[in-house]
Amino acid sequence: MSSTPVLEIRNLNVEYGLGDQAVRAVRDVNLTLHRGEVLGLAGESGSGKSTLAYGMTRLLAPPGVITGGEVIYHPEKGEAYDVLGLSDRHLQAFRWAETAIVFQGAMNSLNPVHKISTQLTDVLRAHRPEMSEAARNARAREMLKLVGIAADRMEAYPHQLSGGMRQRVMIGMALILQPQVVIMDEPTTALDVVMQRQILGQLIELRERLGFSVIFITHDLSLLVEFSNRIAIMYGGRIVEEAAAAAIYKDSLHPYSQGLLGSFPSLRGPRRELTGIPGTPPDLKGMPSGCSFHPRCPKAFEPCSTNIPVLARPDDSPRSVACWLHPVKEPVG
């Protein structure tokens, strides 16, 4: 993994709706993805994970609106640029070629009336019009082989494939133009645990072979601990903690991160009681004052209900946390 950034999110804000009724789904998010890195993004449903992914790629459906911030992309060659400022023509070229997304439901993402071969070659037809039909078909067969699917499945329809195979097709489609960044939005949620492990293992193998960077979005922190380089925890539309995966697992600083870790069983060591997190996620229309987690936090004290904590590096550490339990040394962003 390199220390060179490939994607920088700076003070990104996303709202749904307009005026006084607007809901702030993403709030002043700062996040950096390094070249060759797997960055995990975890949090409960409704914390803003998917909205952040769709905002950074300008895939927000109405009434979603980006109200502020920058998304700086660093290509392998040439100058860095702000994705939010791209024209429609340049944005079309950016998608798939530079950044690709693997969505949660492969059956819903694949067109049910077209064969797998058609859907794979359509990407090449749109972005590589100079390629011959034979070259497109050869590239499609190559990608299927790369994700562990026999070439004869090219002529199958999505409903003729298992859930795991459909998800592999989506990964192959995302990688067919060799993008630098692959965003995976809970791609294994609908799969059984055995298939989850197979696909995640294959994803890591492909990343090591091809060198792309990954943003992996999930509510299952236990998955991220195993194969991510770094993990960012979201709550109420904000990043509340960011650190190396090992640091999050061994010594998480934010009470919300600790609650997430206490919600799944450990595969090793003595058995322990699962604790979970009391209460429910905040209503984005009426966020609590101060720290948004304080109504559910077992460690809340006086400033938590009145002052919003800043995402900062405590005690000169490379990690960052937004919590009044830890002194502010250097704000992030």
From TrEMBL:
Q: What is this protein called?
A: Dipeptide/oligopeptide/nickel ABC transporter ATP-binding protein
Q: Does the keyword Transferase apply?
A: no
Pfam families (UniProt xref): ABC_tran (PF00005), oligo_HPY (PF08352)
PROSITE patterns documented for this protein: ABC_TRANSPORTER_1, ABC_TRANSPORTER_2
Q: Which InterPro entries match?
A: AAA+_ATPase, ABC_transporter-like_ATP-bd, ABC_transporter-like_CS, Oligopep_ABC_C, P-loop_NTPase
**Keyword set, alphabetical order:** ATP-binding, Nucleotide-binding, Transport
Look up the coiled coil feature and give its residue ranges. none
BP GO annotations = peptide transport
Q: Which family does the record claim for this protein?
A: Belongs to the ABC transporter superfamily.
Question: Which residue ranges run through the membrane?
Answer: none
Looking at the record, the residues that make up the ABC transporter domain are 9-261
Which species is the source of this protein?
A: Actinoplanes awajinensis subsp. mycoplanecinus
Q: Which GO terms describe its molecular function?
A: ATP binding; ATP hydrolysis activity
Transport as UniProt keyword: yes
Superkingdom assignment: Bacteria
